[in-house]
Amino acid sequence: MSTGIADKVALVTGAARPRSIGRATALRLAQEGAHVAALDIAQPYADFPGHGVAGTDDLESLVDELEALGVRAIGLQADVTDEHAVGQAVETVCRELGPVHLLANVAGGSGAGFGAAPLLDVPRAEFDKVLEVNLTGTFLASRACASRMIEHGEGGRIVNVSSQAGKIGWPLLGAYSAAKAAVIGLTQVMAKEWAASGITVNAICPGTVDTDLLNPGNLFVDLMDASQAGGFAGWVEREIPLGRLQEPAEAAAAIAFLCSDDAAYITGESINVSGGQMMA
Ligand SMILES: NC(=O)c1ccc[n+]([C@@H]2O[C@H](COP(=O)([O-])OP(=O)(O)OC[C@H]3O[C@@H](n4cnc5c(N)ncnc54)[C@H](O)[C@@H]3O)[C@@H](O)[C@H]2O)c1
User: Fold this and answer.
1) What is the domain partition of the chain in residue ranges?
2) Of 36, 37, 194, 209, which sits 20 to 30 A from 28 (CA to CA)?
3) pTM for this structure?
4) Ligand 1 pocket, 40 CB below 6 A?
């Protein structure tokens, strides 16, 4: 049965890192027949070296993988916080692949040296940067795509990636929690403002996903290793009702569902995908 995704043009941000929700989403949408533009900053932040990011080779290998699935694909190196670059990227997608219909705002994160610390120790510049990447980037890409979707007149789907940390404040992730809570608010406003144009806007709130974000050096993983019986693995077993980390593909499946025809009547929602870790 068709999900309605085949032959649609999708833009996925934060797509390059080898084991990431964005890459899994790009591949999942392509498996369902979408033509995919994969956007990523694909370079380390000079000013926040602790925040791991992908390289241009990761973006190139993703495009190869997408094309091998029989769809058209392009890679775009851009920073979602750069308004001009985002505008140019959306123009490129529409010119090279056709009118953009699906947008997955996946770029984001937090980490050591990137806003993950007790609030008393978070420098203003790190706080601002975390809001910029997670919140402003989502706004800029959504606005650029929505104006093209409205112009084209065939509606569209936008899925934002918030977090369980956007539903309840997480100590040590203050900037991130604030940004992801704001993504939920932004999702609702975009859903209301663009509903009349046939655009649905939803968010997913993943729990603890086994991506490169959780590599050694992650403040939370290190803290659990140091403080919990059985370390991080023991914490996962006790705190996540399903007893295991989430696979990136499981977050991607929820995003694909929200892009599908089956989700046509769902808008403004922020859906937990957390193995039971977050139920509110
Ligand atoms: N991993 C988790 O446990 C988890 C849980 C909840 C929510 N999330 C959210 O899911 C999303 C993806 O997380 P992930 O775990 O796959 O992270 P990841 O670090 O593995 O991937 C993030 C990707 O975004 C790219 N990126 C970072 N800044 C960018 C920018 N300014 N412009 C363009 N691209 C940029 C990186 O290069 C990378 O490819 C993030 O928004 C994150 O906050 C992750």
Assistant:
1) 9-211+247-273
2) 194
3) 0.97
4) yes
